[in-house]
Here is the input.
Amino acid sequence: MTSYDTILVETRGRVGWITLNRPDALNALNTQVMTDVVAAASAFDADEAIGAIVLTGSERAFAAGADIKEMESKSGLDVLMGDHFGGWAQFAAVRTPVIAAVSGYALGGGCELAMMCDIIIAADTAKFGQPEINLGVIPGMGGSQRLLRAVGYYKAADLILTGRMMDAAEAERSGLVSRVVPAAELLAEAGKTAETIAAKSLPSVYAAKAALDAAMETTLAEGLRFERHVFASLFDTSDQKEGMSAFREKRSPDFTNR
Ligand code: CAA
Here is the structure.
C-alpha cells in the first residue's frame, strides 16, 4: 500500500481507513494533507473491494482548520490562481460513502472536511466551529454553504459570525452530527457503521449517495425525477433480484455488486 507524508492509510476488510497525522499542528490541513487525502480516498474509491471509508484524526483534533501558517502570506491572486483548497472537491466527489469519526477539534477547514463526508460520528469530546471570522476571513472550504444546509440559517449564522465553538451535544441537536458516542467508543462505532454499509450492494450504495447529493444540490422536482430514474435502474442489477428473493426466502442476501 502507498505510504503518505501526512496521513496513515489502512484497509480492514471492506473498509478503507484514513487517519490525519500531523500531531504537531493539530492536523491542520495544508496542501500536502489535501493531496494525500484526495489520493488515498480516490484509490479506495477506485477499488471495488472497498465499500466504505472512515476518515478520522487524533483524540485531540480531527483537524483544527486549514493551515494558517501556510496561508498567512498569500495574496488574493495567489489563492485564486493557485485554486487553494480546489482539490478538496475531488474528495467530496468520491462515490464510496465516507464516515467522519470526529474527536476533539473540528474547526474551520476541519469542520468543512467533516461536512464533505456522508455521516459524522462524534466523540462526546468533539468541538465544531467555523472560527475564520477571528482571522479576518470567512470559511473557504464550503462552510458557509454546507453548514447552512446542515443546521439552517440561524445556527450557521451564529457560528460563522461569532466564530464560537459548539460541543458535540449541540452539534447533534443541530443536525450536524449523525451520532455522539463516548470518546473511547468512537473508532469502534465508526468501524461498525462502515462495515454495515460495506456489506450492502455497491451499486445501490452509490445510487443512494448520488440521490442524497442530488437532494443537496438541486430543486425538489429535479431531485425526485433523478431518484425515480436511479430507483428504476437498480432493477437491472442481480443484487436487486438477490435482495428481494432473500427477503422472500427469509435468509441474508449474498450480494455480488452486480
Ligand atoms: N494552522 C496551523 N497550525 C495550527 C492550526 C492551524 N489551523 N491550529 C493549530 N495549529 C498549531 C499551533 O500553531 C500549535 O503549533 P506550535 O506548537 O508550533 O505553536 C499547535 O498546532 C498546537 O496548537 P495550540 O498550541 O494552539 O493548541 P491549544 O490547545 O492551545 O489550542 C486550538 C487549540 C483552540 C484549536 C487552537 O490551536 C486554534 O485556535 N487553532 C486555530 C483554529 C482556526 O482558526 N481554524 C480555522 C483555520 S482557517 C480555515 O480553516 C479556512 C477555511 O475555511 C478552509
